[in-house]
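User: I'm curious what two different proteins look like when written out as structure tokens. Can you demonstrate?

Assistant: Sure. I'll show them one after the other, since each token string lines up with its own sequence. Here's the first protein:
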Amino acid sequence: MIDGNFFNNILNDFLSVLPNIIYSILIFIFFLVVGNVIYHFIVNKADKTISNNIIIEEFGYLLYYLIVILGFIIAIINLGVQTATIITLLGTFAIALGLSLKGCIDDIVAGIYLCANDVFNIGDKVQIGEINGYISNINLFYTTVNQIRTGLPIIIQNSKIKDSIVINYYRYQYINVENKFSISNIPSNYKNYVEIFSIIKQSLMNCNFIIDKNNIRINVLDANDNSGTTLVVNAPIVSTDWFLAYYEINNIVREALFNNGIILRLF
């Protein structure tokens, strides 16, 4: 039979350690808040479109978890757990984690290499091996490339990218591709030039070959009552894309003008 002294002793023991438990919880909460504040400060300062800043963002994650782990260790030490025991457990856990995540570690090292050397940024047109497309996402584990024609995303491990030939077309020389369109002098074509320019510009917003959509230039090259009005469209592209860009811009603009009832002159 359990006498009353047994429960009294348990209660007394609990009350004696209760201040330490509360103090340990407060310590952990303090480190949790500090880690959270530092993490958000770092992440908010990083521009997520620039690969170099991805290292800063990932460093924010790492720093957050290190601060939380430190707070946890200090909290349990305050409860009386021996430091040697904690170090042994953490060492064993780190070795096991390192062995199980070897592939991920390779990707992280490659990701740091790619970001530190600013190989590409989000929005860049690249060729990685046989894959051509635009960078849509970068992190320390993998990079996502949207294919040019299909737009489908392809996820590539950073370790594979590091071992591949990477061509960043965004770093190539820019040129202006020039397309000319001659509008026939028929009654349905008598529209305000501003309206026609707007139709052309809006249609070219979907052209992936144009590097800077804000620098599309449209001018009247010639206006003649007999031969019609000739417009010239200049758009900045990567020099290596000239052939494909010229024909795609030509097709896009012709289709847009036709859909808006604007007839081009036949030569």
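Here's a second, unrelated protein for contrast:
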Amino acid sequence: MVSLSVNVNKIALLRNSRHLNIPDVIWAVRTSLEAGAHGITVHPRPDERHIRKVDVYQIAEVISSTSIPASTARAEFNIEGNPFLPPFMELVRDCRPDQCTLVPDVPEAFTSDQGWTLTEKNRIRLEPIINELKGLGCRVSLFMDSIPDEMAAAREIGADRIELYTEPFAAAFGTESQKETGEKFFLAASAAKEAGLSVNAGHDLNLENLGELIRLIPFIEEVSIGHALVSDALQYGLFETVKKYLKALKH
């Protein structure tokens, strides 16, 4: 089964709109894991507009002692973000997450909106970061666009996985370009697999398009979902929403 990592950034964003701890990010983490989520994702940014440093430390502590229901496996912690912006590397060195997903977003980015282009400059910058992360015991995933020719380079500089940036897939879903876009994602994922990389996916995935993505790329290891999942939780409740996403992945 594809693993579900719940991104709790939007829970933190809502909390930060008031000087109260409502909604409680740690409650959301515990509830998601109790419902069967396989892990938790956070994307801390320098301005702490959603996830704060203190959240990361608290979440790491919760996950370290939490197992997935009906399984002996421990829940996983995924910290994603730009490794060249603070406080990313500080948090990773302190918390030793199971996975680090490296994303090339700039401080003023509204949300992550592109994958890495592995130019020689970026390869030189990323390789020592990847080596350090792996030395800390972290699995390393690179946030990538659906460009097959980039995948071998990701493996060459030491990445273990890539995370496909799926906003274009979500935008094309239900339109005339759905088939063509889906084929591009399949080819990119296949190129990653051929290069020896495992494949994750994330961004704008929801209950409607998730099943189609998994049908197209059945070897996806993990999806990271936040915005749509938290939005659906307003209607169904967080516990039941996580269950719905798990069901979508299973079927």
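A detail about the second structure: Residues 178-194 form the longest helix (17 residues).
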